[in-house]
Amino acid sequence: MQKLNKIDDIKKLISNKKIVLLYFSTNDCGICTTLLPKIEKMLLNYTEISSAHVSMDELPAASGEFMIFTVPTVLLFMEGKEVIREARFISIDMLEEKIQKYYRS
Predict the structure, then answer these.
(1) Taking every pair of C-alpha atoms in the chain, what is the biggest distance, in angstroms?
(2) 98: which of 6, 23, 40, 42 lies 20 to 30 Å off by Cα?
């Protein structure tokens, strides 16, 4: 998962790729640190999904741009439109179930 720290780079990724997953976290969030490798492992099954990690510590402007009120937050974009938003208590199984609905259609 690539790390992005510019709003323009995030927007470019969303507009240039069919499916994009963004993972927002902070450095002092223990859950964020634990969840990231699980999401990266899950994404190995979805080769068409482009993914990026955004550290809110390095890019605080992302909170306003993407309406991030808590971390961790996962956003999934299909053809530039947000279709999934999961925040705070994220179940990998439920997230994957939601992704499969869009990934297979």
Answers:
(1) 37
(2) 6
* DSSP character at residue 45: T
Can you tell me the distance from the alpha carbon of 94 to that of 105, in angstroms, rounded to the nearest whole number?
A: 17
DSSP 8-state class, residue 22: E
- CA torsion sign for 33, 90, 94, 59 is negative
Nearest residue to 88 (alpha-carbon basis) of 21, 30, 44:
30
Position 32, amino acid: C
Peptide bond preceding 72: is omega within 30 degrees of 0, i.e. cis? yes
Cα 10 to Cα 7, 56, 75, 82: the distances in Å are 5, 13, 12, 13
Q: Which residues pair with 20 in a beta bridge?
A: 50, 77
25-70: per-residue pLDDT in tens? 999 999 999 999 999 999 999 999 999 999 999 999 999 999 999 9
pTM for the whole thing? Answer: 0.95
The residue behind tokens 């492992």 is 41
